[in-house]
Amino acid sequence: MAVEGARLSQCDAQGVVLSMKALVTGATGFIGGRLADALASDGVEVRCLVRDRSRARSLERRGHELHEGDALDADSLRGAGKGIDVAYYLIHSMGRGGGEGFSEREQMAARNIARMSQRSGVEQMVYLGGLGQPGSRHLRCDPRRPGRSRPRGRR
User: Fold this and answer.
1) What pLDDT score does 128 carry?
2) Is position 155 within any domain?
3) Phi and psi for 17 in degrees, rounded to 5?
4) What is the pLDDT of residue 8?
5) Residues of the chain with pLDDT under 70
6) How far is it, in rounded angstroms, from Cα 47 to Cα 60?
7) Would you call 74 exposed, middle or buried from its count of C-beta atoms within 10 A (0-12, 13-18, 19+)?
8) Which domain holds residue 60?
9) ∠ CA(129), CA(22), CA(92), 5° rounding?
10) How far, in Å, CA of 38 to CA of 149, rounded?
11) 26: closest CA among 67, 85, 84, 75?
12) I want to staple 77 with a disulfide (CB 3.0 to 4.6 A). Which of 62, 70, 116, 121 is the partner?
């Protein structure tokens, strides 16, 4: 993941190294937890967005800051992006049941995180989607409506 000997950091105008701060959403998942640890080992300060603090104690023990919130609840995201340089979006709503409303939940979560990031001044967003195969309707975009998904049934 990291280049040997490289550290992720920023420099101010005088060349003084400043640490980066990253927000990792989905940090209790397989990829998210490993990403949080890898970033921290590269010198990045890591804040993890978690739905349930009690399920994220191991992240806290490893030195990561926790922000308890739910991507489907915009109000709970307040403060999650404060001081963040880069946010990693690793969330999916499959654990809340598939079927009806899945696409809408996915879109709402992504929009809420994007809006929070924009309001907080997050400079970069990295999105990892695991369901992006051509048949995945919730990730298709409508070229006539940038930033909006294609209406159901249209290709």
Assistant:
1) 82
2) no
3) -75, 125
4) 52
5) 1-18, 93-99, 129-155
6) 9
7) middle
8) 9-139
9) 25
10) 33
11) 67
12) 116
Report the 10 Å Cβ neighbour count for 39: 22
Q: Is residue 148 part of a domain?
A: no
Query: Domain for residue 120, yes or no?
Result: yes
Residue 76, pLDDT score: 97
* Residue-level pLDDT at 112: 95
The CATH number of the domain holding residue 89 is 3.40.50.720
What is the distance between the alpha carbons of residues 12 and 14, in angstroms, rounded to a whole number? 5
pLDDT for residue 74:
97
The CA distances from residue 62 to 4, 40, 66, 155, in Å, are: 22, 9, 11, 45
Instruction: Collect contacts of 91-97 with beta carbons under 8 A, ≥24 apart.
Output: 91/25, 91/26, 92/26, 92/129, 92/130, 92/131
Number of domains in the chain: 1
Terminal alpha carbon distance of the chain: 36
Q: Which of these, 88, 106, 110, lies nearest to 98 by C-alpha position?
A: 106
* Number of C-beta neighbours around residue 149 at 10 A: 17
